[in-house]
Amino acid sequence: MTSIGILGTGRVGTHLAGKLAATGHHVILGRRSRKEQDAAPTEDTGPRVSFADQRTTARTAHIVINATPGDSALDRLADLRTELAGKILVDVSNATHDADDGLPGDLCYPGSSLAEQLQAALPDTHVVKTLNTMLFMVMAAPDMLATPPTVYVSGNDEHAKRTVTGLLGDLGWQPAWIEDLGDITTARATEAMILVVPHILRRHGFAPFAVSLAR
Q: Angle of helix 158-170 relative to helix 11-22, nearest 10 degrees?
């Protein structure tokens, strides 16, 4: 099975780690500090999950998932350019400025996307955007929703997208639910979908949902 590094030990990172480890992958959770490790919820990750600093995680894992805050991810990952060279970087974050109530507000990269910015900063890395159009609990349990959800995939490298599609299958996503939108520029469409999310959260709370296609 694949060695997967996840940068970020918050709810998104640990949730993905637990499911991927349960399907047989060895997962490394990359923390920024010892304090972040100690604060991370580890009860759902299991014995196949280990911790390391983010640079070690990026260097040793075969595939790296960015689950760090999107508004600061570009500088953080650009600093790991050497470690990420030749690897697949799965970006699941959204880059927004916080609104007054702490929910997502305006986009950090209007007319572009975090994924495009990451690809430009990491030319030797295959960036694939996915899983950023839903609440974190749906990422690893899409069948929890009453209607079939959609997960979108954007990236320049076809092999990288096929590899990521396989990981989505491990997370429970059926092939019919996976929508390949095309190259990395299409990520600006899915990242813009975050603009609807705070309005849904304010009205309905953190009930699981995904922004999906209906056919």
A: 80
